[in-house]
Every structure is written in structure tokens, then in C-alpha cells.
Amino acid sequence: MASLRTCAVIFPRIERNVIDWSHDSFSFYIDEASPVGPEQPETVQNFVSVFGTVAKKLMRKWLATQTMNFTSQLGAGIRYFDLRISTKPRDPDNELYFAHGLFSAKVNEGLEEINAFLTDHPKEVVFLDFNHFYGMQKYHHEKLVQMLKDTYGNKMCPAIFAHEVSLQYLWEKEHQVLVFYHSPVALEVPFLWPGQMMPAPWANTTDPEKLIQFLQASITERRKKGSFFISQVVLTPKASTVVKGVASGLRETITERALPAMMQWVRTQKPGESGVNIITADFVELGDFISTVINLNYALDEGEDDTT
């Protein structure tokens, strides 16, 4: 099984390793029968109100960035999950859901799915990045924090300096989960890592060449010492792009066509203090993305921080 630990035993500092990440990790669960998410603009809300189910089917083609569920992603080697949380309007149960334009699975169900994998694989480690919150009040955050406690308990690693986190340290402490939380709530809870410790610059372009230029510039500037760092190998469609390829969707219109250029950039990268750390992509099963990212770890200087 593809795993971070295949390389990090020799190169123990996780912030120097390269980790596979799936963009909008939960989006394989997007429910076409759900309401439109509260973060969507009025134009989208009106579009759905007029065209109903047909509009949502078209939206799903552009909102779903993954085809594998959490278990399949974990089995393939993904260890970092991009999570966006929302309340659902007029929901009598006041549940929390993953959301990206439309609603996805209940958060507790997704967390339990990941926990089942961790229980079966006690030396595996995952990163959970809660980076967008929609329609959430203080008590919703309290509910989510309690949910994390109930699900993972002592598996969660308290927030410390990133350069102190090694697999050896995590194994000794029996920690398997690092939770990043992009909200002031993180300052109040010991096991929540502040969002600023996981910077993720975003190119916001449909042009593969501009994306690669942006990625390279970000790597050159690099992260501040003591934090992790994300390279988003992701193209973002404009409204005009969606209109032109409305029936085709994100995968066919953008991702598959740009894949060769994006993968070429990934293959030329190196991990380390001034290199890549976490690389994210849409449709992580395409090409050899996962194996390529994992193999980048072997480019580290084997003499650096060698503990064997």
C-alpha cells in the first residue's frame, strides 16, 4: 500500500517530506438532491430555482473534484484532506455537512470512515484541514470540536512546532491525526493547529502555463520555517469556461487536458526546506499523480537527518 511511512522513516521531519493531498476531498459524495450551499452567489441560487434538478446535475460536473471516497483515497496513498464544512438551511437535525456548492456527506460519517482506516493501520498518519466554514455559529464550532474529540480522542496530535513533528515522535505518542483549523477557535483548543501553519497560495487561473509560473514562484518564496506548505496543482474554471463546457464538466474540459503539463512540473520538484511539501490535485487517480508525489521523497538527501 502506498504510504507516507515508506519514506519518512529515513527522513523523519514531515514538514520536509512530500505528501499527497486531494482537493475538495469529500466532493465524491456531493448530493444532487441537496439544497445549494449558502456560500453560492445569488446568480447560482436563481439558476437552480429556475432549472431545478437539471441545474444541479450540471453543477455537480463542475463541483465534484474527486471520484474516490475517503477509504479509497487512503488506500491509494492520500494522507491530507481538504475539508469544507457547512450547516444546511432549515435542517431540523442541525447537522454539519461537507459542502462545495452543493452539500455532501455528514461530517461525522466522513470522520468515522477515516478513523476506521486509522484503527486498522495504527502507524498511518493523516492531516485534516478544515479551511472553510459556511453558516456556522459558535455552537456549531463547539459541536465540531466535540465530534473530533469523540471520534479521534488521543489519536490527535496537540499543536506544536511543525519542525518537531516526525513519524517517530507520532508513533511514540500514538498520534495519527493532525487537525488544522482555519478559525480563531483553534487558539482555544490544544489539538487544533492554527490555519496559518498550513499556507496554501492559490493561482486562481485556467491557464496551465500561468499555474506553473505561480507554483514555481511560490516555491521560490517558500514557506516560513516552522510551518507546512501547500502547492495547489489545481486549475480554477471561470464562468465562461463553465458555459463552454457545461455538459462536459471539470474533469474533461480542464483537468485531463492540462494533466501532462501539470505532471511534468510535479516530476521536476524536490522536497526539503526550499522545495515542495504538500501537493494537491483534482481527480488524484488520474495518471500517476499519487505514486509520483510519493516517489519525490526519495530525492531527499539521504544523509540529511538520517536516523537509520
Average predicted local confidence, pLDDT: 84
Structural class: alpha/beta
Radius of gyration: 19 Å
Helix content: 25-40%
Largest sheet: 9 strands, mixed
Distance between the termini: 22 Å
Number of strands: 9
Instruction: Tell me the β content.
Output: 5-15%
Give structural notes:
The chain is of the alpha/beta class. Helices cover 37% and strands 15% of the residues. The chain is built from ten helices and nine strands. The protein has helices at residues 5-8, 42-63, 70-76, 107-120, 138-152, 167-173, 208-221, 239-244, 250-267, 289-296; strands at 19-22, 80-87, 96-100, 102-106, 126-134, 177-181, 192-194, 230-232, 278-281. Strands 1, 2, 3, 4, 5, 6, 7, 8 and 9 form a nine-stranded mixed beta sheet that branches. Helix 4 packs parallel to helix 5. The longest helix has 22 residues, at 42-63.
Which secondary structure elements does this structure contain, and how are they paired or packed?
Elements: H1 5-8, E1 19-22, H2 42-63, H3 70-76, E2 80-87, E3 96-100, E4 102-106, H4 107-120, E5 126-134, H5 138-152, H6 167-173, E6 177-181, E7 192-194, H7 208-221, E8 230-232, H8 239-244, H9 250-267, E9 278-281, H10 289-296
Parallel strand pairs: 1-2, 1-9, 2-5, 5-6, 6-7, 8-9
Antiparallel strand pairs: 2-3, 3-4
